[in-house]
Amino acid sequence: MIRYAFNKMLLAFKRRYNYDVGYQQDILQADLSAFLKFMGLQTMSAHTGKLPTGPLYAARLRAIIWDDCGPCTQLVVNMALEAGLDPALVRALIDRDLQHLPAELVLVVRFTEQVLAHNPEADELREQIRALWGDKGLIAIGFAISSYRVYPALKYALGYGKACSRIQVNESFLTPTRESALAEGAGGV
After folding, report:
1. In sequence order, what DSSP letters do the residues of 85-129 get, joined into one string?
2. CATH match for 48-184 among 1.10.860, 3.40.50, 1.20.1290, 3.90.1150
3. How far apart (Å, rounded) are the C-alpha atoms in residues 42 and 47?
4. pLDDT tens digits for 139-168?
């Protein structure tokens, strides 16, 4: 009965976002205990810490793009648009077009990339984030960075990884930019 209820929830998610939930259904059918643990991850990844939508999705999008450029990224784009993030900002985040992002989103993009690269330059950026949004905001960004990377890794591990694809933002199609400030050299935004 519980598997039926969870599967119904997964199918509703699939319809809402046009997203393949097959890997989640496989986990549910193979190991209910593992699926319940996976649901715990869902709770972590949904945490907002009352962070504004822009910084939250800047971290989520740049983290997911670090490891994926296909269906997982499209899902996060759809969620960002549903949450009311301006499509122009979503496009700029996908393209890593820092000139068209507000300073606070540039900060989150740079911080996310430095954290993912294990670069000590994240320390200075962390303090700027803490000054803007406090410890709760920093935790929300940390949860976004760490939890959003799990989904593509898990999908690839279970054989559901997909090749890179173009991402749709309303009527526009984009190829995610995976380069970072690390590739551009030190010091620049």
Report:
1. --HHHHHHHHHT-GGGS-HHHHHHHHHHHHHHTT-TTHHHHHHHH
2. 1.20.1290
3. 9
4. 999 999 999 999 989 998 998 876 666 788
